[in-house]
Design brief:
Helices cover 42% and strands 29% of the residues. The chain has three helices and eight strands. The two termini are 34 Å apart.
Length: 161
Amino acid sequence: MIVLRPAAAGLPCATMWLKPNRALSRRDLRRLIGVLAALALTTAVLGAWQGNVFAPLFALVESSAVAIALGVAWRAGDRSERITLDESSLEVQSLPGRRSARFQTYWVRVQLQAGHGRDRLLLTSHGKELEIGAFLGEEERAELSRKLKVLLAELNQQRRK
């Protein structure tokens, strides 16, 4: 998901937030885990009724493992990137890791490069290379590439005036 906050009046700064798409909200995730646990425990009770006394214990362990795995996968959706573009620099900040890279707007180049099974969106300048939007879909990366090229071209035209 790409959220663009254009420059406000008097401020020559545009900000783009890149976030992965999430299929479930936190509430929906909890509901899903509850339904899966209820189904596992129901099946385990039926198994215990037929003589498998360890089925409820296994269902508890399995339900806990599935809940933890789904929680970890859901939290991975918290990662995002913030791209701030002003007259002199383009800054990419990865969140929550706080990794940051800064490029001069005049020299930075946006490249959509074919990789192993997917396109990579790269920012390059002065020998530095940074991949952005790796968690976005193919169409979103292409759209981001177009938006960044347009914004950089507009800034460079304003600088020439």
